[in-house]
Amino acid sequence: MKALRKIAALLFCAASFALPEAPKDSCISCHLELEGEQSKPAKVFDSDVHRQAGLGCADCHGGDPKDNSMNAMSPAKGFRGAPKKTQVPEFCARCHSDIAYMHRFNPKMRADQLSQYLTSVHGKRLKQGDTKVAACVDCHGVHDMLPASDTRSPVNPMNVAATCGHCHADPNHMKGYNIPTDQVEKYGKSVHAEILAQGDTSAPTCTTCHGNHGATPPGVNSVANVCGTCHVFFAQLFEKSPHGPAFAQMGLPGCVQCHSNHEIVKPSDDWVGVGPNSVCITCHSAGDKGNAAAQKMAGDIAKLKTFEGRAEEILSSAERSGMEVSGPKVELTSAHETLIKARVNVHTFNDAEVQKLTDQGVEISQKAYQAGVASLRERDVRRKGLGVSLIFIVLAITGLYLKIRQTETRHNA
Ligand code: HEC
Ligand code: HEC
Ligand code: HEC
Ligand code: HEC
Ligand code: HEC
Ligand code: HEC
Ligand code: HEC
Ligand code: HEC
Ligand code: HEC
Questions:
Q1: Which residues contact 260 (CB under 8 A, 6 or more apart)?
Q2: Which atom of ligand 5 lies nearest, measured to the CA of 164?
Q3: Which residues have any ligand 8 atom within 6 Å of their CB?
Q4: Residue 158 lies in a domain
Q5: Is the CB of 29 within 6 Å of ligand 1?
Q6: From the CA of 204, how far away is ligand 7's center (Å)?
Q7: Is residue 373 part of a domain?
Q8: Is 202 among the domain residues?
Q9: Could you tell me if the CB of 58 is within 6 A of ligand 1?
Q10: How far away, in angstroms, is 397 Cα from ligand 2 center?
Q11: pLDDT tens digit string along 296-335?
Q12: Among residues 226, 111, 207, 125, which one has the least CA distance to residue 163?
């Protein structure tokens, strides 16, 4: 009897070694046979990041994946079914908040998604029973979940705006909340979206500014301050400017006051000053110091552009007539650099700081202009020289011709 059992056990062992795959998961095999919605999870599951990590249906839903009958889904076997929307975050967090468990699979995986999520408007509202907000599966999908790094994932930076847009760009879904539904449209017109679309992920998408899970990204106390995480130098200048403390006191968000939050476009020089496109005149009226500073800055920037343009023109003209002006042209590029720096220094909101740079640029431009003038003068001298020598050559040829004619007539006669 004992021997028989041993043989049976051995045979079983051999059989399982011979099998190319582990025994089929009963959840998958039965669900594949079902109709519609009940079969979909099993059909798409192969590509799921959890499947790739070796997990099965029962790791999330519970139950017994070795039982081929409906009993596989008996609560007695730990089956917990499909979670209601309000239960989803905790359903996922059973694993994702368990740092020891997660690190067995991936030592770099964070385990703070739920705790972060609970700080967001989404998390707070879901706790109050509002099921129109985003829970984990609204952003990540379910059953065919991909790692965020996969470009097909709905949370990959390339797809985030569209994912948020499913709700935030749908006025029907957002009815009753009294917030705009134009974020996706406006963001779509921004420099940031344009640069991201070129594949440059240093530009922000929705979650870079708003946080993936929490209310704000790490290291920022408010979304309004997020710009400074990338535009560090601008933020430093702004903080030290008269606007830094004044805006803080009035509770005005910094950069977005002039740049907006979503439709951030490429600024231009006519934003400074008092013209129709000026951002300064929304707060500063004629006669106050800010208005005067705006006019001064705009004037200085315009002056530098005029001088730079004039120098550029004369150097190009010299170059077209074959003169060597590469030296002064290189120098003129440093005048352009001072222009770029002056635009940054607008954020000191101190006209003297802008003037320091524009003065430098004007001086460089003037030198380059003088080099252009000198080079054109030299061209004229050379042209004159060429004219004189041409006259001599023509005279010589004519002389020679006459001489030949003279000899020929003498010869013929
Ligand atoms: C013999 C076939 C069969 C097996 C085996 C099976 N299921 Fe099901 N499952 C069904 C059918 C049929 C339904 C839909 C009817 C129902 O809700 O009871 C269903 C429904 C479900 C639901 C939805 C229940 C809900 O709350 O809406 C989940 C989740 C589920 N199965 C997961 C599993 C998991 C996990 C396993 C493996 C441990 C498994 N199933 C094994 C046939 C099966
Ligand atoms: C990573 C966890 C996870 C895994 C693994 C998983 N599910 Fe689900 N499943 C969920 C969640 C969460 C829901 C609820 C989805 C929702 O609210 O939209 C769900 C819902 C369902 C439903 C209800 C119908 C539906 O689509 O909403 C069925 C049936 C189901 N799962 C079956 C399965 C089967 C079969 C497998 C294995 C092939 C599986 N699930 C693997 C998390 C999981
Ligand atoms: C049974 C435990 C478990 C449950 C429950 C679970 N996960 Fe996972 N999840 C994992 C493991 C393990 C990985 C793979 C980690 C790895 O290999 O990098 C993973 C990976 C992921 C990833 C990919 C992360 C990345 O970018 O690399 C996402 C997204 C994810 N899970 C979301 C969810 C969501 C949403 C839910 C709830 C619907 C959920 N998980 C439920 C265990 C679980
Ligand atoms: C509002 C959309 C949104 C919601 C809701 C959401 N996520 Fe994420 N999730 C993201 C984005 C975006 C990323 C990061 C993509 C990247 O790294 O570029 C991410 C990344 C992840 C990762 C990869 C590791 C990490 O932290 O970067 C896991 C795991 C994950 N989420 C799980 C969850 C779980 C669990 C929940 C629910 C508690 C949840 N997510 C809710 C959008 C969301
Ligand atoms: C399933 C629908 C849904 C998805 C997907 C979704 N949201 Fe939301 N979100 C809402 C709802 C509903 C509110 C609540 C509006 C409110 O309370 O003002 C909200 C609130 C917010 C708020 C707070 C607005 C306020 O009141 O100040 C921000 C910020 C936000 N979502 C950003 C995002 C981002 C970023 C994404 C994409 C990564 C996203 N949401 C995806 C539905 C969604
Ligand atoms: C460059 C950073 C940045 C990006 C990118 C960004 N936002 Fe915002 N968002 C902000 C700031 C700043 C606010 C205003 C917060 C305040 O006033 O306190 C805001 C406000 C919001 C609000 C509140 C309602 C409103 O319109 O004022 C929602 C909802 C929102 N953003 C969703 C999104 C979505 C969806 C995307 C992607 C399409 C996105 N945001 C991209 C910075 C950003
Ligand atoms: C994740 C990093 C990041 C964040 C956060 C960010 N930006 Fe940008 N921003 C960029 C990149 C990258 C560019 C394109 C390269 C450049 O011009 O610096 C850019 C371009 C710009 C430009 C256009 C510059 C030009 O010369 O065309 C402006 C204006 C701007 N951002 C303002 C903001 C404001 C205001 C905020 C906050 C509401 C913000 N940015 C948040 C990375 C960021
Ligand atoms: C009071 C209005 C105002 C505030 C506040 C402001 N900016 Fe500007 N910003 C401007 C103006 C005006 C220009 C255009 C300067 C020019 O082109 O002559 C500009 C230009 C820029 C540029 C493009 C510079 C270039 O090289 O062309 C960036 C980037 C930028 N700002 C970022 C920021 C950031 C980040 C903040 C917050 C720390 C901020 N700005 C706050 C008015 C403002
Ligand atoms: C959102 C409103 C707002 C905008 C836009 C704005 N400012 Fe101001 N500005 C203020 C406030 C508030 C103060 C501090 C109170 C005061 O002195 O008027 C201030 C102060 C100043 C000061 C210091 C004045 C002093 O008394 O010493 C200067 C200079 C200045 N702004 C220049 C500018 C320029 C240039 C622009 C356009 C590029 C601009 N501001 C755009 C609100 C604004």
A1: 186
A2: 37
A3: 227-228, 231, 234-235, 238, 243, 254-255, 257-259, 267-269, 271-272, 279, 301, 340, 343-344, 346-347
A4: no
A5: no
A6: 8
A7: yes
A8: no
A9: yes
A10: 100
A11: 999 999 999 999 999 999 999 999 999 999 999 999 999 9
A12: 207
b/e for 310-339, b at 16 or more Cβ within 10 A? ebbebbeebbeeebebeebbebbeebbebb
Residue 224 Cβ inside 6 Å of ligand 6? The answer reads yes
Q: How many domains does one find in the chain?
A: 2
User: Tokens standing for 185?
Assistant: 């449209």
Residues in the chain, total? 413
Which protein residue has the closest C-alpha to ligand 5 atom 12? 133
Closest CA to 116 of 35, 12, 218: 218
Q: Residue 367: name the closest of 311, 326, 409, 405 by CA.
A: 311
Last residue of a domain, one of 82, 101, 134: 82
We report the CATH number of the domain holding residue 321 as 1.20.140
Query: Ligand 7 within 6 A of 225 CB?
Result: no
Q: Which atom of ligand 2 is nearest to the CA of 40?
A: 26
Which domain range does residue 306 map to? Answer: 289-412
Is 83 within 8 Å of 91 (Cβ atoms)? yes
**Residue pLDDT, tens place only, 130-165:** 999 999 999 999 999 999 999 999 999 999 999 999
Least distant ligand from the CA of 136: 4
Structure confidence at residue 388 (pLDDT) = 86
Number of H helices and number of E strands within the chain?
20, 0
**409 Cβ neighbours under 8 A, 6+ residues apart:** none
Residue 97: closest CA among 213, 176, 185, 255: 213
**Residue range 154-200, pLDDT digits in tens:** 999 999 999 999 999 999 999 999 999 999 999 999 999 999 999 99
Q: What is d(CA 411, CA 100) in angstroms, rounded to the nearest whole number?
A: 117
Ligand 5 contact, 213 CB (< 6 A): no
Q: pTM for this structure? A: 0.91
- Residue identifier of the C-alpha nearest atom 16 of ligand 8: 269
Is the CB of residue 371 below 6 angstroms from any atom belonging to ligand 6? Answer: no
Residue 247 resides in a domain: no
Of the residues 82, 113, 143, the one at which a domain ends: 82
Rounded Cα distance, 296 and 276, in Å: 16
d(CA 91, CA 126): 14
Positive/negative CA dihedral, 99, 101, 102, 105: positive
